[in-house]
Amino acid sequence: MPDSTANMMDHLSKLIDDSPTPIYAKVKQAICQQIDSGEWQPDQRVPSELEMVRALGVSRMTVNRALRELTAEGVLIRQQGVGTFVARKKTHSALSEVHAIADEIAQRGHIHKAKLIDICQAKASMEEAMELGVRTNHRIFRATILHFENEAPIQIEYRVVNAELAPDYDQQDFQNNGAYTYLMTVAPMTEGEHLVEAVNASEKECELLQISASEPCLQIKRRTWCKEKLVTNARLISPGSRFQLFGHFKQ
Prior knowledge:
The chain has eight helices and ten strands. The chain is of the alpha+beta class. 25% of the residues are buried. It comes from Vibrio tritonius.
């Protein structure tokens, strides 16, 4: 067993106590503690089943169940013929709420950065007019923004804005989240809706997100209102391996 693996197993074994908890659950908990503490990093290869069996003195069935359940829960990734690796933690957004992605990233203790790809003022097409509840040729802004979390591209934002409700939208500081702050100031959101779909990114979107063409993506179509007027219509695309939606319901 290589020294690095032996060191990983030594730390892992020290986390397994004598409590009456099932052994497979204690192995799971120990692995999660190593990951949460930062001892085991994302994309790092973890010891094999056989190495764990020998080092921990437990059955292969026990280790297999622990690794299988952690893989199903998205904590680990198992690649046939290659090994088991620590999964990258996915970014998540609240399904029932609307927040600025910059704020969500900051709450995780990470760094947000945005790049304005394109913005223009135009007259609404028939489709855009229907989505915003305005007449064709109504003045709008079209913007494309790429968001990053810790230097990794996390989301492409395509946004159409009712220019009459937000006349200075194109003058905002997109890099530092000024556009979101501006919208919430001039037309504070009173209502919103989400439509979530699984999609394949276009060739250009794959290039921006730095993903392969086979990577599944999540698409969120979002509209927001200020009182009875539609302010924005947005389409947000994120790599499925880096992003997830979360909802909590109670009744």
